[in-house]
Every structure is written in C-alpha cells, then in structure tokens.
Amino acid sequence: MPFSEIVGSLSESPTLKVTQRVNELKAMGVKVLSFGAGEPDFDTPDYIKQAAIEALNNGKTRYTTASGIPELKDAVIRKLEHDNGLKGYTRKNILISSGAKHALWNAVFTILNPDDEAIVFAPYWVSYTEQIKTAEARSVIVPCHAENHFEPRMEDIEASVTAKTRLILLNTPNNPTGAVYTKKFIKELARFCRERSIWVISDEIYEKLIYDSKKHYSIAKYLPEKTIVINGVSKAYAMTGWRIGYVAGPEWIIKKMAMLQGQITSCPNSIAQYASLAAIQGDGSDIEYMRAAFEERRDYMVERLNTIPGIHCKKPSGAFYVFPEIREAVEKMGMRGADELVEYLLEKSSVAAVSGTAFGAEGFLRLSYATSLEEIKEGLDKIESLLK
Ligand SMILES: Cc1ncc(COP(=O)(O)O)c(C=O)c1O
Q1: Closest ligand 1 atom to the C-alpha of 102?
Q2: Cα–Cα distances in Å, from 184 out to 29, 124, 177, 216, 350?
Q3: What is the C-alpha to C-alpha distance for residues 24 and 350, in angstroms, rounded to an integer?
C-alpha cells in the first residue's frame, strides 16, 4: 500500500458525503429538501459575531496557549458547575480543542493502545469507530433497541466487557437516535465502570437540545476520576463552522492531551475562542429560541412519519434527529434495504436522508429536523407520496 494502513482502513463520513451530494445537486440548480444536515440551520447569534470582530480589532490574532485561553477555560468551568453540577475543576482540568470532534480524537488517541477494546453503543455517531481505528484499537459494538428508547442495557454491556476493555463511548443526547439517557442508567454505568476501572468518554455536544422537560445527566458527576467530558459550541450556539470544542477531565490526562494537541494543531483558532467565550457567557435566550423551534419541528415530524404506512417512529427527547424504523416500507417497495431507499429518495424526489446502516443500524433512517418547517412539510409530502 503506498500510504498508511491505518488511513487505508478508515471510511469516509457518510453524513459529510450526503452533504457533499446535496451541495452538488444544488449547484446544478436542483431544489433539494435536505434531512441530512448535522448542524443547526440558524445563523450564529449577533453578540457572538461581535465578540469575534472585537477580538480581530484588538489583535487577538496570534497563537494562544496550546490548551486554550484561560478566560474560556474559566467560562467552561463555571458552565460545568452551573449546568451540570460538576464541581472542583480548575484550568488544569480543561482543554479547548478545534471542535468536539477534535476534542474526542485527543481523548480517544490518548487513552487507547493498539488492541485495546472500546465499547460503542449502536446506533452510533459515525466518527467513533473511525477514531478508534486511528489508535489501532478495536470497537466492540453493543446494540441498543428502539423498544428501550435506544438506551443501552447493563446486561448487554456486561456481556461485552473483556479484560481488554479500556473505554466506553457514551453520547447523550444521542446522534442519531435523539435518545436522552436516564439518571438511573448513568448512575449504574458509573458504578460498573468504577468497579472495573474503565474510562468513559462522555460526548455531551447536544446537551442544550432537550425536550419534554427531560434532563441531561453527566456521568462525570458520578465517575469524575474516570470520565472525560466532551462538549462544545457547535450545536448549542449554531457555531459549527467556528470549530471550538472542549474537554474536561482528570488533570494528568488533560496534560497528556494538551501535549498531543500542541504537536498536532498548536492551538485552537484564537478569534473563535473569543467568540466561544461570549457564547458561553451569554444569557441563553438564543439557545432557548432555537430549542423551542426544534421541538415544534420534532413534534410535527414524528406525528407525520407515523401516519405513513410502513414507518414507525419513536419520539426522541433530544438533539435534532428522528430515527424511524422503515423495514416494512422498504420491503413493500421491493428494495434491498435503507441504503437503496435513501438513494431512491435523493435521485427521484430530491429528498436527502441518511441510511441507518451508516450508524450501525440496518432498517432505519436518520432524518434531521435542522431545517425549516416548510421544508419539513414539503419533504414529508414527497416521502409520503413516494411510499404510498
Ligand atoms: C455526537 C457528535 N459528537 C461530536 C460532534 C462534533 O461536533 P463539532 O462540530 O464540535 O466537532 C458531532 C457533530 O455532528 C456529533 O454529532
């Protein structure tokens, strides 16, 4: 092989692939109704943009400390205490990275050795398994079921743990299912991991997008010594392009991650760090505006989907995705699976969705409702008429 075997083993992100195809079709003048997006359709709020302009005008244009600016670390510490009840973090427990994805890779690569096993719950976000491969470690997939609202079951986790298990990847609220894990499960998992000395990487990037008065529980509260919290500004503040995420965890491991990051990217973007500082210190009104809009769209989408023959959709409590089961619909159409349906929807009706197969779940679709209610209505009309 003329290039690295590790890179050769990686798959392209299927969600980014859909986005690319949608952009190609749009460039050809096709009106695409896209349920593929993994990002809010809102613009970054003005007060955040202003903070970036000020940072530029004030000459904040140089390298920062590799692990991020102290003011942003302090804001993250206050946020973790105020929103998640996580006390006792100091600047030494915080690392600012170039997006939550980069934060995750720093953590995965710092913890795992070749041949280690990492438990990933399916359906899973597409980058987990690929990031684990970069450390030459192995993903052990533990399936979660729609009947259990896609929350993992302790007995399935117990059955998958071996002497090589070093890490569990947790994501609540979840992409792609929208599941929000219960306090009971989070506490049980914390106890389980403490007894076996297993690390948890807790990806909490959708924390602010929760509905039906459900609550987000961070496992770091119950397992601080073994939890690495991952979060960021992308989804909560409509800042996906700014590329700022952060990590909170035990001091010694944060120090190692900061060293790794220093060698790979030097530091996160200076201007985006100041913008993120303004975002996290904001009064939260913009977040609430977006959250309420997402909730309205979710309600509409779930109700409509369940009226389409062959589609069964649970009502998720978080993030901006629904994850309907479409097996019957696919069979009725005489198709092989969700991949074929997704292709058919895009090429015949210009409706973009992502197949569940990409997330390790055959027979499902992921539909993002990070798009306007009008487009959601139009897109569902098209799906309905196609399947009917
Ligand atoms: C579950 C999950 N974690 C992390 C990320 C990455 O977020 P960021 O844009 O901050 O890198 C995403 C983005 O889609 C995600 O869905």
Answers
A1: 11
A2: 50, 21, 19, 12, 42
A3: 12
Q: Is the pTM of this model over 0.85?
A: yes
d(CA 348, CA 293): 29
> Which residues neighbour 17 within 8 Å (Cβ) at sequence distance 6 or greater?
none
Question: Rounded distance, CA 70 to CA 332, Å?
Answer: 58
Could you tell me the residue ranges of all domains in the chain?
5-44+285-387, 46-281
Distance from C-alpha of 202 to C-alpha of 218, rounded to nearest angstrom: 7
Pocket of ligand 1 (CB under 6 A): 38, 99-101, 125, 171, 175, 203, 205, 232, 234, 240, 245
Residue 321's pLDDT is what? 97
- pLDDT category, 15, cuts 50, 70, 90? confident
Between CA 357 and CA 267 the distance in angstroms is 35
Q: Which letter does DSSP use for residue 283 in this model?
A: -
5-44+285-387: what CATH class?
A: alpha beta
Angle at 346 between CA 345 and CA 350, to 5 degrees: 100
Q: Bridge partners of 247?
A: 95, 230
Query: Comparing C-alpha atoms, which of 386, 388, 309, 320 is closest to residue 354?
Result: 320
For 16, phi and psi rounded to 5 degrees?
-70, -30
From 101, 171, 323, the mutation candidate for ligand 1 (largest count of ligand atoms within 8 A of CB) is 101
Distance CA 228, CA 231 (A): 10
CA of 99 to the centre of ligand 1 (A): 8
The closest alpha carbon to 328, from 366, 364, 355, 368, belongs to 364
Q: What percent of the chain has pLDDT over 90?
A: 90
Reported CATH class of domain 46-281: alpha beta
Q: What angle do CA 243, 245, 247 make, to 5 degrees?
A: 155
